[in-house]
Amino acid sequence: MPSAFPSSPSSPSRRTALVTGATSGIGWETARLLAEQGCHVVVHAPDMASGEEAITRLVATGITPDRLDLAIADFSRLGEVRAMAQSVARHHPAVDVLVNNAAVAAPERHTITADGVELSFQVNFLAAYVLTRALTGPLTARPGSRVVNVSSSMHRTASIAWNDVNRTRRYSQLAAYAQSQLALTVFARAKAPQGCTVVSMNPGICETSLLPLYAHEGDDPAEGAARVVRLCDPATDVKPGAYYDRTALSPAAPVATEDRTVRRLVKLADVLANAA
Question: Whole-angstrom Cα distance, residue 20 to residue 35?
Fold first, then answer.
C-alpha cells in the first residue's frame, strides 16, 4: 500500500518526526503536540481512510497542512512496513524523531498474521523493529536523533516464550500482549544507529482503545502524549537504552536489562523478519 507524500521533501531546517499508530489516542495527540512545536510530522495510519481522517482532525486544531504527511502501512504485513520505510526515506532523508507507538490489543482468539507471526507480537514489536532498522539512514543523517518506544508497565509481568513466541500451545490474550511490550522494552537496549538515542517508556494508563487491558479509567491521552513528547525533546537529557515511567527514569524488569535477552531478541526478530 503506497504512502501519501507531497511532491517535495520537508524543509531541511525543520525537525522531522514519524509517529506510528497516529490515528487516535496517544499517537494522534503526540503527532499534534510535535507539529505544534514546529516539527514536520509524518502521521502513520494502517489505511488511507483513517489516515485522512486523522490529518483532517489535526488541521482542524490549527496545524497547517504543510507540516503534515501521511504514511500508510498495515503493520500486520511486514512488506507494507518496509514499503512505508522506503517512502519515508525517499521523501525525508533525515528523520529526527521516531515514535514507535502503534499497538493493538491481542485478540481473544489466537491470530497469526500472513507473515506467520502472532498478531500482537508483530504489530506491537516486530513491525517497530523492522521499521527502525529500515530507517537507519534517515535516523543517522543528523546528529541527535531519538527513537521512543511506547511500551507499558505490563512488560514487568511478561516473559518471552522463546521456543513458542507465537504462543500456539498456550495462548492468553494478556500474556501475548505483555510479551510484545517486554520485547519493545528490550529492543531499546539493542545496538542503536550511530548518533541515535533509543529509549522505552510507559506513558501511563490513558483513555485509549487499550484501556480495558489495564483499568476502568485513565488519564486523558493528551497527558500520555505530553510525556512521550518530553522524551522526544533534544533538550531533555535521556539515558540511551533506558526505561522511563512517564518521564522519570525507572528500572525496567530485570530480564529486560540482561544482555543475553537483548541478543536473543535481536536474533529472534531477524529470523522472523527475514522469513516474512
Answer: 14
Supply the range of the domain harboring residue 150.
16-275
* 10 part of a folded domain: no
Report the SS3 class of residue 194: coil
Please report whether residue 7 resides in a domain: no
Q: Which three cell numbers stand for residue 225?
A: 502524549
CATH number of the structural domain spanning residue 129: 3.40.50.720
pLDDT, one tens digit per residue, over 105-138 is 877 889 999 999 999 999 999 999 999 999 999 9
What is the tens place of the pLDDT at every residue in 45-77? 999 999 999 999 999 999 999 999 999 999 999
Domain count along the chain: 1
Specify if 11 maps to a domain.
Answer: no
DSSP 36-64: HTT-EEEEEESSHHHHHHHHHHHHHTT--
Q: Which residue has the cell 536473543?
A: 264
Among residues 180, 185, 152, the alpha carbon closest in space to that of 165 is found at 180
Residue 180 lies inside a defined structural domain of this protein:
yes
The single residue of 129, 177, 243, 244 carrying the catalytic annotation is 177
Is 177 tagged catalytic? Answer: yes
The span from the CA of 90 to the CA of 198, in Å, is 23
